[in-house]
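_Backbone structure tokens_
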Amino acid sequence: MSSIAIGAGGIVVLLLLIALRMPIALALAGVAVIGIGLIRGPVAAFAVLAEQPYNFIAHWSLSAIPMFLLMGTVAYHAGLTNSLYKAARVWLIRLPGGLAVASTMACAGFSAASGSSVATSAAMGRIAIPEMLKYRYDPGLATGSVAIAGTLGSLIPPSILMVFYAIFAEVSVSKALLAGVLPGLLSAGMFVLLIVVRCSLNPNLAPVSIEERFTWRDRMAVLLEVWPLPLLVLAVIGGMYSGVFTATESAAAGAAFALVIAAAQRRLTWKVLLSSLLDALKGTASIMFIAMGGFLLARFMAINGLPFYISDVVQAMAVDPLLFIIGISVIYIVLGMFLDAMGIMLLTLPIMIPVLHSMDMDMIWFGVILIKYLEIGLVTPPVGLNCFVIKSVVGDRVSLEKIFKGVSWFIAADLVTLALLISFPIIALLIPNLVQ
């Protein structure tokens, strides 16, 4: 059997193992090691297993991940994010669907502190959804708006997925993170526009509250409560944009700033510190195990030559780049229906990166497109992880069917955003191109 056939067979076996719910890290590593053993022999396979995971984990850029996670856990446990929804509600409640708009903007702010879509959905779902249901908002709109806005954690920096993409694609981590700023804001803007238009056309979706009216004094007062989080985000993104910090240094600075702000507000107790450290440690360990499996798979793909074979086939067919992007869009969206975001990325990147290089595509731009695919997968049935997170928050008050139905409107908005990003790459590349 040829090495290319072994590579293709390995991908089929990997998909079957994932479908059988084997832990993704074990599936990736197991297929990679056995595949390398079939091609190079058991000695080479065990040598790769012994050396390559350490070589990957020792990558300096990966140290940004535990630091970004620590920044998010400190912000959450110290209560730095609690006033986000309150501030958005005070300023935006008079808009059609104002509470849903406020939820979207609060999710965008939380995303910039946590870097995690699941954490964003869980945290904001507990705060925002009961409030919207209290004011008789349509349950689908209430749950769908938070589920989709939670996906912004995958795009707005600091994004853990974007850090991994940059390392695998061998591009600047700082530029990859900054590339998510404008697309993230565009995504949030599209969600807000959809909410306002739908609620204007059908006021029954979001009855206007006549009980709550806020003065300008109220609006300015709430800004005094919420200022620490924007300051933290500006420190992280501004540090990378100005070149003062690398991505890794910016992550460490963000974690340090979060601790300083929490201490200054007298919220940094031993309980908060311990909970933050433990959550960051658990998150880092889980992510790293999966990433090591993905790195072993990448080595397996490099040895069997399957990605380069596919590159040659694509070049021989002279496939139009736009048709190629449309084709892989369908593939990624279908994969998103069944696999988690990290699994999809680590499964496909070892194959896709050589193909993308052969077509001279901008790797930073493609990183943004890839994250958008993964965002859509987070809310697409039957897996739709964010929707299940929201279901766990609301319990029996809203059915899972209603949540998926509510989020379907926002998936349509995401597809429009995706089309804009494909048609106008400058949206993603403008800020990275300004960074030297």
